[in-house]
Amino acid sequence: MLITSGFVLSVLALSVEAEAQFRGKGLSANYGSTDFNDFQDEVVTLCEDRTPNEYFRLTIEGDCRSVVRCDKAGIAGTIRLAKVKCPSGLAFDLERQTCDWKASVNNCDRLSKPRLAKPNLHTVEPVCPDGQLQCGSGECIAREFFCNSRDDCQDGSDENVCRGDEDPNKSDVCNPAECFLPDCFCSADGTSAPGIAEGVLEIANVPMMITINFNGAVNDDNMRELYNKLFHIERINPNGCTAKGTF
Q: Which of 15, 171, 45, 159 is nearest to 111 (CA)?
């Protein structure tokens, strides 16, 4: 069995503190406060229409190091904030969503990234001719113009719904009843592989990919050291194959 490890690297050098449900006095009552707990009653308002991986500020006061993101993976689906802080000497860049030298960050006077315009994809009654969808700015354009890496809507909203289930041109979910080898094979939940059901291949012998996530700055020196520790020649799979990695 060959185990391949793919690196997903983040250059966000942060200390993380996940807080439980907020119990503070509210955002408007505490404008300018630098106390994280003062905003704990405002979670729903702060997190409305935000993606879980978007970092934003609670205040523009202070040294521009502290930001938070909405964590919707709490117990029973409770929304909470994860508080993070850049190392000393750095500031958080809202546009690039990473820590950088403070002299290189020019948005410390802003609380969050500009909100992106969204198209009107779900309406009670059709508002556009067949094959077209409505932009956030009101005009209708062809469905195929959405997520084509060009702003076809006046407000650019056709390029702001291109992640995951939002994309109106996303591929259909694989249907095992319609997908057959040798033309195609699908496993909607990723738990099956060709030959498993027929007993030709054992699940233990299916090649796997392991994704390892890192927080912190990455450079050639520490990457080489880390790679050599993980993938040295003595580290082999049960079938004798060496483990490989890429990033």
A: 45
